[in-house]
Amino acid sequence: MEFGPAGLLCQRIKQGEKVDLFASANDAHPRSLQVRYPHIQLVPFATNRLCLIAKKSVITHHDENWLTLLMSPHLRLGVSTPKADPCGDYTLALFSNIEKRHMGYGSELKEKAMAIVGGQDSLVIPKGRNTAEWLFEQNYADLFIGYASNHQSLRQHSDICVLDIPDEYNVRANYTLAAFTAEALRLVDSLLCLTCGQKYLRDCGFLPANHT
């Protein structure tokens, strides 16, 4: 089993690397593989949302919210790399949603955001470490846009704050599996599609695949 940015893994598969099962935080990469390999089966298995993760020390006023923090010119915003990592693509969609409601904000955020993880030549996060927590510890960023499921693993860090992003701005991440073999599809059915598998995903902070 190998973990990595889904866009980069998808590219390796297209270049001929053999796999049995591919999981992505979006459905675009699995669908692009299905165009090339029509026999594969796609299985949506969870959804997620974005959140803003911040160093607690940068929240200096009680009335600051996710948007005022994002727009603060003094705070460094780290994001995942678009195209290489689905979280980066979702982040750009978030910026577009912000732009629709606050003209100029989305454009400013696109200029401000530092794509420092999830790319071909990005920072390498040590195994077992949460991305935002490590970036803050190493002083690479003050803010990070990540998945809302991060809230579970960040609860133990008293120096980190996770802020919800309202529905009208947020985006839906559609987690999808691509099964290349019948054996892989059976594994998916037995592990992720049964009640126990879905409960495990819920416990980890994910939402159901049919969540609206």
Automatic annotation (TrEMBL):
Domain of life: Bacteria
Pfam entry (one): SBP_bac_11
A GO biological process held by the record: molybdate ion transport
A single GO molecular function term of this UniProt record: molybdate ion binding
Gene3D superfamilies the UniProt entry points to: Periplasmic binding protein-like II
Protein name per Swiss-Prot or TrEMBL: Molybdate ABC transporter substrate-binding protein
Organism, as annotated: Pasteurella multocida
